[in-house]
Design brief:
With 379 residues, the chain is of the alpha/beta class. The protein has 16 helices and 13 strands. A seven-stranded parallel β-sheet has the order 3-2-1-4-5-6-7, sandwiched between helices. The chain has a six-stranded parallel β-sheet with strand order 10-9-8-11-12-13, sandwiched between helices.
């Protein structure tokens, strides 16, 4: 079995893998493809797509799991009998049920844990339910063969559970470094989303994702509104999300703000390549997990951009020393980091180069898949 292997290709090719995602993101399909190149067969299970990703394209690689298909899934999984089961969303009820099935089949179970803080509740009923669920979750984590913590905060969270430190390894998930890579600016995309020709010669600071409070959009908005007049900087932010709608009139009135509409998944690499700086201002959230592993950070780094990120969740582990790490929940920190990068072209260039190098050597999905199998062989 794999416990005695050290990535010998012919031995790995005899093994079958199963991967479960609660919701499917772009990186997950690429990860499954990379894992398929290493094992004999890999099946992916998911409840569906997240956001605006092209589900029709992803569906062909995924077994859809919902209330109607749950019994057929059980039969499929039992007949498949995977040797390795890699489970994300480790604290959901479906993951817990798959965990039990995998253990019955004597499959080696890898849990990928994004949670990094215990949740707090004010309702007595919710507190009791959370306590009961946590008992089950702790038992699941302790019985796993390998736990991948997506941040150092996640590792500390697992240690507070009483999990065996010998099976916990901090490892951020990957990104497709072939899809996301430094390229020339797509002038047609710039024109379509409203970036003026004059703005393309300036520094463009990009925010990617839903413009909401959890992602730090309130602090980003404060930074934009408080940023001193500087004709060298343009902000490129999405025109959707509750925080944008709340401040739409103020933001749309600013000459250095371009609010872009939803972008097709295929053009996301082009969106990153319009930017010089990408800001991930995720907030620290009391009583719940802070931003776990923002895909916008890995994608921006793979695109060779200078990145600014807050010291929460998985951001420090992903970024390493290839970006500017700032204090969370602080709009002034965003302003200072932006001012530093706008004023120093050499620093922007150096950070962008380091980000790309780190993405290729540490954050690609191929590296992620290899390291999971290597760690599983060691434990």
């Amino acid at each position: 079995m794999i416990g005695q292997l050290h990535l010998v290709d012919e031995d790995l090719k005899s093994l079958k893998g199963a991967v479960y995602f609660q919701w499917t993101y772009r990186w997950m399909i690429d990860f499954v493809n990379e894992l398929s190149n290493m094992l004999g067969d890999v099946r992916a299970y998911s409840r569906g797509i997240f956001g605006t990703y092209p589900w029709d394209r992803y569906r062909s690689r995924t077994y859809v799991l919902n209330a109607r298909s749950y019994v057929p899934f059980l039969i499929n999984f039992l007949r498949y009998r995977p040797d390795i089961s890699i489970l994300l969303a480790s604290e959901t009820s479906i993951t817990l049920s798959i965990f039990v099935l995998a253990k019955l089949l004597k499959s080696r179970v890898v849990l990928v844990v994004e949670e990094n803080e215990e949740r707090t509740f004010h309702s007595l009923v919710l507190k009791l339910l959370a306590k009961l669920k946590r008992t089950v979750v702790i038992a699941e984590h302790k019985a796993s063969d390998l736990i991948i913590a997506e941040s150092e905060a996640s590792k500390e969270y697992l240690l507070r559970m009483g999990c065996n430190p010998a099976i916990i390894f901090s490892l951020p998930h990957g990104v497709n470094v072939d899809d996301f890579r430094p390229e020339r600016k797509n002038l047609e995309l710039a024109r379509r989303i409203g970036v003026r020709p004059d703005d393309l010669g300036k520094n463009i600071a990009l925010f990617v994702g839903n413009y909401n409070a959890y992602k730090g959009a309130e602090f980003m908005t404060e930074a934009i509104l408080n940023f001193r007049s500087d004709d060298r900087l343009v902000f490129l932010i999405p025109d959707n999300g509750p925080v944008f709608l709340k401040h739409a009139d103020e933001l749309n009135a600013l000459p250095n703000v371009c609010a872009y509409p939803p972008i097709d998944d295929q053009q996301m690499p082009d969106l990153y390549n319009l930017a010089d700086i990408v800001v991930i201002p995720s907030m620290r959230c009391p009583g719940t997990s802070s931003d776990r592993s923002p895909n916008s950070l890995t994608e921006a780094m793979a695109s060779g951009k200078a990145v600014i990120g807050t010291a929460v969740g998985g951001i420090p582990l992903i970024m390493g020393n290839a970006g500017l790490l700032i204090a969370p929940n602080d709009s002034n920190a965003i302003v200072e980091a932006l001012s530093t990068l706008v004023a120093d072209a050499e620093l922007r260039k150096a950070l962008g180069k380091k980000a790309r190098e780190r993405a290729v050597t540490e954050l690609s999905n191929k590296v992620y898949a290899q390291r999971i199998l290597e760690l599983l062989s060691r434990v």
